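Revision sheet: structure tokens.
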Amino acid sequence: MVYKTAVVITVLLLSVTLAQVPRGKRCRCTSHIKELNVKKVIQLEIFPSSPKCDKEEYVVVLKNSKKPSKMAPSKKCVSPNIRAVKSILKGKNKKLKHIKVIRHRAALGN
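Predicted:
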């Protein structure tokens, strides 16, 4: 009986502790690049806010300049306020039509 009571109390304490973990601590982006060379952008991914991160995140996939066959494309976090990102999202510039924009959906239950 004492063992069961101890287990129930431990579970209750853990659930209260875990419920107090603040949002926004597990974001993909901890820093953002300040300038973006649009010629190197392959795609733009937009991640909505979620239980793990309370802000919308923008990630660009860039071509590598050195031997692209051997190196994987790199991913960089960007601010949505950069002029290049705004023009990619508007989609009116014909030179930027090759850039694929992926809008991820919010994950349910995370």
